[in-house]
Amino acid sequence: MEQIDQIFVHLKHGVVAFLPEGLQPLVSILISVTAIVLVFPLLFALTTVLERKGLGRIQNRPGPNRVGLPRLPTLFPWLPKLRLAGFGQFAADGIKSLTKEDIVPREADRVVHFLAPFVLLVPVLLAFSVLPVGRNMAALDLRETGLLFFFAAGAATELSVFMAGWSSHNKYSLLGAMRAIAQMISYEIPLILSSLTVVMMAGSLSLVTIVERQSGVNFGFLHGWHVFTPWGFAGFWLFLIAACAEANRTPFDLPEAESELVAGYFTEYSGFKFALFFLGEYLGLFAISGLGITLFLGGWLSPFTFLNWMPSWFWFFFKLFLMIAFFIWLRGTLPRLRLDQLMNFAWKFLLPMTLINLVVAALWHFTNSWNPALRWLLGAILLTFSYWILGRGFEAKFRPRTYRYAS
Amino acid sequence: MNPLHQYLLLSAMLFSVGLAGALVRRHAILVLVGIELMLNAANLNFLAFWRYGGNPEALTGIMFVIFAIAVAAAEAAVGLALIISIYRHLRTSNVDEVNKLNG
Amino acid sequence: MSLRNLVHSALCLAVSLVGLALIYLGLDAEFIGWIQILVYVGAVSILIVFAILLTRGTEAPAGRITFAPWSGLIIAGAVFATLAWTVIKSKALTEITGNPSLDVSFVVKNIGGKLVAEYVLPLQVMGLLLTAALIGAVIIALHERKGLK
Fold this sequence. Notes:
The complex is a heterotrimer of chains A (407), B (103) and C (149). Chain B is mostly helical and 103 residues long.
């Protein structure tokens, strides 16, 4: 089992050991980069199909179910028609976007227009490098500043959104970009503050160390994930909401609301650049889900000690898959928020809740010697109480709605 | 390692570019950009002296830079709010045209 | 700083600040480097482009420069010349080569420790300043809209 768990690590070391001394660091880095660049876009390809199928299921229609392998009847007439239940769709989409004409508006600022998709994609790929996807499987373990690196890489996406929206010279693009930036900045604060609780409790900014801190065992079979503590539980949900907004997913998909803004900031993008934006958005979603898994859901740790024999990377990708499924489900279920609701929610509910969560985490730390049940109760009461006050106070503004009909 | 004076020269250059921008450009936002550049030049100096100085354990350079970044962020927020407010009142963001109190 | 297009100069500012962050990394100040990217690229340059968009249509007209640009350039050039001359002339500075084998793994932990011990008063003042700046910025920017109501 140990062998399967470490198979990728051994494979990499094996390949590297073959090479001359001088090349080894370079090749080692190259292999890690290649792995990231291959695995996550492939995951993206699968996710697009899954998302369309899942949304179709929710909306009572089949979704893509026809595209299979191309048959090439002249070359291989004996091959049967393979449909693969529609899982060839991503290849078809990819080829389509590659062969489409790349249209740049006449008024557009060409250089900025060209650079924007890359400014989005490159930092997102960089962010993956600090995520530990398995035991000993972080491409880059920044012992001092791992989490900070992740957020610094995430900061560049806002600039890319602005570049795309502004350079297109299109009012829908610009409006979409303004909305997106306002939303991203507002939700970045709860996102960072809710991760800060974990940093405070784990005492480290390194994502690898944070995962290792969660490997304690409760009740003899349950791993001590952060989500199993009151502050971790609240923090996880706060993080999830903020992550959802940060990745522009429904119910926070105002920046690209199709019914209002055509396609938001990438309205004027076509062909392969559009595909790059699409890829960047989804990779951002994966990165932030991966971060949530690392911070709260125990990273590559298995949920129960008796499942420890399964490889660590399996658990990471399994959790990632569950998170993606959750996001698809949300998208199929929830309606879109209004802009003022979005801002109110971020500043009047999420931000105070994350601050209270910080206080609860500190209390949890200082009541270390108490009875666990008592600690749990204290944290849970504090959080529920503040949730109730903030939630109620927030809701009180929405009086029973009065309807007026157009005359 | 690069000798210390290269960092200092780079920082001096950054400072001069910022100063030139703040003096020459008449757009209020660009004046603010120039000031940000000058602050960053100072930060670079602090870090260079921290790294090359005799007592890096004291972390004084780093501490100063942390506070400087916080102050710069606050300054940018207030400055830009002022610029937007002036623009709304006077329909201009050219620093030379804001001369109402010029009796 | 010399570009006509305001948004271009803001984007160039972001690029140069990223470059500066990389220099910080080269100086073994990892923490400051990432903070620099997070604060400047993520917040300050975004604020600047926002302000540019909100005050659009006011590119400074070319003919209306009251303070001759050349004097500004000359002053800046003189400042640079003086600074550079001082730096190059001073023996003490050019001879320091630094300690390349410095172990910097203590930095982040110590920053935290020092912030709540030695530097606790500056930290509190900074918190106060940031709060005041936040509230002040909101009030200043909102002023007009209140007057309209």
